[in-house]
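Help needed: design a sequence for this.
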């Protein structure tokens, strides 16, 4: 390969093209004309001796070579930025968007305080909350650059990612304050009423059900919902019961009451993860620090 045929601007355009797999969207993202980006794509095809983007049914798709280029290209551009950028920029001067992949838990209790801190200290940092589709998809998004941070359970260390432990979550059984089971809450009370289960995949059982089965017991799952945000209002207006992560239970909500589970149910760790190439990204590391502080104070 003739390195003189490559300039950094070409690689920046290629990065956008591989992210978007669409010439017009890449042009809009880079504030360039579509012909300029199309011309850059043709140059990249010559340089890499590959089509990179192929025509599909109504869209373009990345070739295997293009997929292999995505992560190392982002690492290269990140290293160049670290080389030429000033080592520190005042937070108030940063203009950057941080994309965070997470479910509505923990988003429901971290986004509001995060925005309050940003408004005071770093008003130019914007946040995009992306939907959670599992740890494997989150890792892929971090590697490809589709996401900047991911907040959830990452049980295994990974060579590509930096991971920080934020807290150890526990579960609470939640119901409306005047629920018939709330007085002298017991295992029998817990099993006597239908339960709400939160599952993004529509599962109808959970680890708690396995524990119950081992004891020869069973609970009735009366409703499965895809996110935690739906649960409080449903509990307030029905006799249903839910077992929720403790941080989903707002102490200020006087209409609900929470109890320890009547069986031993293991909690889970909450982590924040990012790609190692972003270790020196000032805005990203600031967000990591703020989320860590918010969760520590909960």
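Sure. Designed sequence:
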């Amino acid at each position: 390969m003739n390195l003189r045929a490559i300039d950094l601007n070409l690689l920046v355009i290629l990065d956008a093209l591989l992210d978007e797999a669409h010439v017009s969207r890449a042009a809009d993202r880079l504030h360039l004309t579509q012909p300029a980006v199309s011309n850059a794509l043709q140059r990249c095809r010559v340089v890499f001796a590959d089509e990179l983007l192929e025509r599909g049914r109504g869209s373009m798709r990345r070739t295997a070579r293009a997929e292999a280029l995505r992560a190392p290209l982002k690492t290269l551009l990140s290293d160049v930025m670290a080389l030429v950028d000033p080592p520190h920029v005042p937070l108030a001067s940063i203009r950057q968007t941080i994309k965070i992949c997470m479910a509505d838990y923990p988003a429901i209790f971290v986004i509001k305080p995060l925005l309050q801190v940003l408004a005071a200290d770093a008003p130019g940092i914007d946040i995009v909350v992306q939907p959670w589709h599992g740890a494997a998809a989150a890792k892929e998004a971090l590697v490809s650059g589709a996401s900047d941070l991911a907040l959830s359970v990452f049980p295994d260390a990974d060579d590509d990612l930096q991971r920080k432990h934020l807290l150890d979550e526990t579960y609470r059984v939640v119901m409306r304050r005047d629920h018939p089971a709330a007085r002298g809450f017991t295992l029998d009370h817990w099993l006597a009423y239908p339960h709400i289960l939160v599952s993004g995949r529509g599962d109808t059982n959970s680890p708690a059900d396995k524990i119950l089965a081992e004891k020869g017991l069973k609970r009735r799952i009366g409703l499965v919902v895809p996110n935690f945000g739906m649960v409080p209002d449903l509990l307030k207006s029905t006799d249903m019961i839910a077992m929720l992560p403790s941080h989903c239970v707002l102490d200020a909500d006087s209409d609900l009451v929470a109890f320890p589970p009547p069986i031993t149910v293991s909690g889970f760790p909450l982590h924040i993860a990012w790609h190692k190439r972003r270790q020196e990204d000032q805005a990203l590391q600031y967000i990591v620090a703020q989320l860590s502080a918010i969760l520590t104070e909960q």
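The chain has a mean pLDDT of 90.
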